[in-house]
Design a protein that fits this description.
2 copies of one chain form a homodimer.
Chain A lengths: L2 H11 L2 H10 L2 H10 L2 H10 L2 H10 L2 H10 L2 H10 L2 H9 L3 H10 L2 H11 L6 H4 L6 E3 L4 H11 L8 E5 L5 E6 H6 L6 H4 L13 H11 L3 E5 L5 E6 H20 L11 H28 L1 H6 L2 H4 L1 H25 L4 H34 L2 H31 L10 H21 L6
Parallel strand pairs in A: 1-2
Antiparallel strand pairs in A: 2-3, 4-5
Helix pairs in contact in A: 1-3, 3-5, 5-7, 7-8, 7-9, 8-10, 15-16, 17-23, 20-22, 20-23, 21-22, 22-23
Chain lengths: 445, 445
């Protein structure tokens, strides 16, 4: 029996002792997964039965949609108790879920130190380094010796779970070095920190975008990263587990743009909410389609004289769509991973155009042959082939330019691979094809 | 001046001393990035000027396409020197690039220990835990005391860069526990390991797929993970920096399926190679388009009697395409991240169908109204609306079923969001629409 079914039965039977035993045997990540499968009432009931530490872990591990529901269901006192137990970054994320008045009520119930930590973290915008960082860290003055650093770790051992190094600071709390646990193990207790520490390899400021933070982690192979303010003062640190979540989130975001839906669709929401999340993109597609219909109507004369012209509409638009997606995907991906540096942008765009034109030429030639062989119509084959080449050129220019333009205007370039651009392209492709056919209408029988 | 331009100038001028000075000032990740911008000859020349350690880092950090070129350009002795300097996982990846005969020649030049390590790693299939793992680790017998573990770290300090814990093994080298550096810092030197170590939280076997390994890292918030064979014997460990690369690679792979191109397109290859990489998908789209043309020709009679029927082909196929991509994306993503567990598959599929039908109904209704108002044709409006509902049903069933079927047959489900399925859907959508129109041809004027 799956864990969530087991929990469900025990909850229904009110078997509190058995529930506690089952929960104690499982890793918190398994509990978080089972938790997602329960319904809202079961989740609330279960959370109240768990000890506060486990409850806080399970709450933090849940999807945001579930957290929102739970935050509504729990009392202020219950929320405050959970927040008190969390790491500061998770505590801030939890408080962020609440309405302003509810935040104030929960703040009143928190210990002063927790309140000030959370308030300091809430200042930072979502999806920045400041949002990812936690304030729990081990920092020690540069004049200390190794034995004092060891003593510090002993004091902090309970509070800090993922401890990979000790930060060395000056009297103004500016970061001057880092000390890895490995070096602490190897150093003699009486050694001054200055003799063992290394200068900080890389730091970030709280304003940095989380995608950029993930890039820094990958580039320098980090497990944790100190965050300093503009004056170099140590304000927090980011750990790699949160960065893996960011990478997952960013990949999901890109893919949701691609598929033409918001991120609601990926959360365990109800049918109506998901429907509302996707409908705008479908309506967009519909208007695109109706516009295409209107364009086809505009060329009614040509089409009724030569119906076979209509047969090749799908051929032309499919090619334009495919080429456009290939080009824009390369650019969007390059921008997202940072591989697309300014130095190489022009070279890459030229390469894209060369690839697309080459492929367009091949496909156009094959189509020309196919139409000729099939319908024996040289003129129609030429019109289709010329249209395809034009469409390919348009699709690959817009496919590379649109993501770059979107980025310049501060919009996520990933939208360039989504339905808005593809719908627009369909309309343009159709107009190009029918326009060329109309231009050469005297050649077409 | 960008670093790669600076390097290029110094290389051209043969200013070896200046080059070495510039290189020494930069982080290896910056060098790897600049390296990507140089041409093949410059890369070879630069690599020969670097000290072996930096050269090995730069080589390991380069894209696979660049590594292949370099492996061709370097002599066996130069390759062996680099491999000797690398961590075992990177050494194995490098040897894997070579042809069998070249591998043998390089093996002859390696030290015996390196050779046997690399040979052991090469046994594992690509993209598995065994491929990701390195054999460099700190393992110590369970009867030891803390002081001995510290001594072990001292010995291994040079060899092992990312050391987060010590593995505790029994006399048969089976993993029995782990000891974090933090606990070592806090423990007294005379304490037995048994008193301090914790049982291994999670282990994987070398056969596990790398995507699954990444999921384990995220689930348990790990920075390193021991790999054990079927008998529980410790054979290696995986570190989180490689897992971040895997996550990036898997996201890229999913997106390349989406956009209908191989992974070559993302590598710094030449135009011809990229063109060859994308052409198959374009040809596929072309054949789909030609098949659509053939179907349209089949309904020539109906279309010439009522040309306005042709106007709505883009409306119907766009909706089917968009709904299909939305549904399949949810399933593909759910399978990739492991959120889509078997317990919840049926519920999710039902939810998908409900969302799609609801949306299809809304869009169908709007279209019916639009056609009626525009052309004043109630019958045509009904045919288009009924077709749209049918197409939506088909698109959302196949959108959810195809990824699940692909997975059952061992194919990457991400193909379900790519051109093969969308092209097929276009053809089916067109047939449904024209079929329904033909069926009700007597109602259409």
């Amino acid at each position: 029996m799956a864990l969530h079914e087991q929990l469900r039965e025990l909850l229904a039977a009110g078997a509190v002792e058995d529930l506690r035993r089952v929960v104690a045997e499982r890793h918190e990540s398994e509990l978080a997964e089972a938790f997602a499968e329960l319904d809202q009432d079961e989740r609330g009931a279960l959370l109240r039965l768990l000890d506060t530490e486990t409850a806080a872990d399970v709450f933090s591990g849940a999807e945001e949609a579930i957290q929102e529901e739970l935050a509504d269901a729990l009392t202020d006192a219950e929320l405050a108790e959970l927040v008190e137990e969390m790491d500061s970054d998770e505590a801030a994320d939890t408080v962020r879920l609440l309405e302003p008045e509810e935040q104030d009520r929960v703040f009143d119930l928190l210990e002063d130190e927790t309140e000030s930590e959370v308030r300091r973290l809430l200042v930072h915008e979502e999806d920045t380094a400041g949002d990812l960082m936690m304030v729990e860290l081990a920092a020690i003055h540069e004049d200390a010796i190794i034995a004092e650093a060891i003593e510090l770790i002993r004091e902090k051992a309970d509070e800090i779970e993922e401890l990979y190094n000790v930060y060395v600071i000056d009297s103004a709390r500016r970061l001057v070095g880092t000390l890895s646990l490995r070096d602490m193990v190897l150093a003699r207790p009486g050694m001054p920190l200055r003799a063992v520490m290394e200068p900080p390899e890389v730091t970030v400021t709280p304003e940095m975008d989380q995608e950029e933070v993930a890039r820094v982690f990958r580039r320098y192979d980090l497990v944790s990263l100190p965050v300093v303010d503009a004056a170099g003062v140590l304000v927090g640190r980011i750990t790699v587990d949160d960065v893996m979540d960011v990478m997952e989130e960013e990949a999901r975001e890109d893919i949701s743009r691609f598929a033409g839906m918001g991120e609601e669709s990926f959360q365990p929401r109800g049918v109506l909410r998901i429907s509302r999340d996707r409908l705008p993109w479908l309506v967009l597609g519909l208007f695109g389609g109706l516009l295409s219909a209107r364009i086809l109507q505009g060329f009614q004369g040509s089409l009724s004289r030569m119906l076979s012209l209509a047969f090749f509409v799908p051929v032309v638009t499919a090619l334009g769509g495919n080429i456009g997606i290939q080009s824009s995907t390369i650019v969007v991906r390059g921008l997202a991973t940072g591989e697309f540096r300014s130095g190489s942008v022009r070279r890459r765009i030229l390469r894209e155009l060369a690839v697309s034109l080459l492929n367009g030429f091949v496909i156009g030639l094959v189509t020309f042959g196919a139409v000729w062989l099939w319908l024996g119509d040289l003129a129609l084959g030429s019109v289709v082939a010329v249209s395809m080449l034009t469409v390919v050129l348009w699709a690959s220019i817009t496919g590379t330019a649109v993501p770059l333009l979107l980025r310049r205007f501060g919009v996520d370039p990933a939208y360039a691979t989504g339905p808005f651009v593809t719908t627009t392209n369909d309309i343009v492709d159709l107009s190009i094809y029918l326009g060329i056919a109309f231009h050469f209408r005297d050649l077409l029988t």
